[in-house]
Design goal:
By secondary structure, the protein is α/β, with parallel strands linked by helices. The protein has 15 helices and 17 strands.
Length: about 450
Amino acid sequence: MKTFSIGGIHPPENKLTADKPIVDLAPPAQVAIPVSQHIGKPAELVVERGTEVKVGTLLAKASGFISAPVHSSVSGKVKKIDTVVDAQGYRRQAVVIAVDGDEWEPGIDTTPDLVQSIPMDATSIVARIAEAGIVGAGGATFPTAVKYSVPEGKHVDTLLINGVECEPYLTADHRLMLENADELIVGTRVLMKAAGVARAWIGIENNKPDAIAHLQERLQTLSAAGEIPEGTLQVLPLEVKYPQGGEKQLIEAATGREVPSGKLPLDVGCVVSNVSTAIAVYHAVQKNRPFIDRIVTVTGKELVARGDGGNFRVRIGTPVSALVEAVGGMPEDTAKVVMGGPMTGKAITSFDVPITKGSGGLIFMRAADARRHAVGNCIRCSRCVGACPMGLEPYLLEKLVQAEMWEDAEREGIMDCIECGSCNFACPSNRPILDWIRLGKGRVGALRRSRAAARAGK
């Protein structure tokens, strides 16, 4: 069974909602849609207070190459342009819309009919992906069109669709692979055409045997019918190991290629997109539908034990409070509510936080699971080194950051850290290693920007 070669851990999977079908959550009375839901420059507003909008109406246009437009997920009237607190605790500009009905923009195909023919050429596909505001739905939120704008001199031969979903608790992608397999397959074919590749793999960890079997059966049927050339699109079962869903780890597991420090998947002939992203691309290119909703796993041990929790299709901008209400309220023993997965997600402080394009999960953590244990001294056991999937020395990076030795931290590869949290999980002394590394990455990033500015000024 394939996997990546360096580091990795095996946290408890806790896939408690894997058997719960996707449920459509009704639009709330009001949404707050942030204009920055992606890596890159925030989008520029094109609406104002009082503007009447429909589902799919453009609210904010992309403001640069690495940017993404934002569309209305509901119909109604713009109540105000305000700031809202996001999952990271920052205030972000947002369009607040009072919902009135559910009217869609003309030209958006809202039927369940599968559209298999792909008439657009690669350039038109990439343009449509950009117009629809598609970003990496696995959590990274990098604008998808940028990934598929392959620069001159680069060659891509392999597309990887990331169905790993290695974060504990999260099951949104698992359910999508079971319930929307045909849309995923067409979306993958669209991305293959956009990237100009003849080979694609859908990587799935073997803790999802039903998804592996279902997709393999669908691909065999389509291949036998002549819809897909045999061998061009395949399911790739993978060993269960966190963080296998990281781009660099998935590329190594699938192809044996190593993405060098400071380089991108394109530099080794690969491009990677998440399962949810591929399905969003299907809707954008085949149905003319912008990125206006996503699947969110709402879970937790106490929540599921009482018979609640599940996987919900949620309109972008919906407040977390609507999801809490949908699962019957917060369990009494909840000590922390995490947006995202337990390894890389963030604890939120308010149920007013809106669901965005990168929101994959909402976890109600019990006090026993959320408690931070007493921090001990580093015992030089090197477990963090053995767990790091990037081959770094996390204990050393922690010490360099504490000593404010930024250049040394940079030389030791701090910017290669993917912030997976494996070092924290492995540390027997409960040291907050990743907290220090995140701080150091911010300082080193600022240092690099100042150097670039100084060079540009010469």
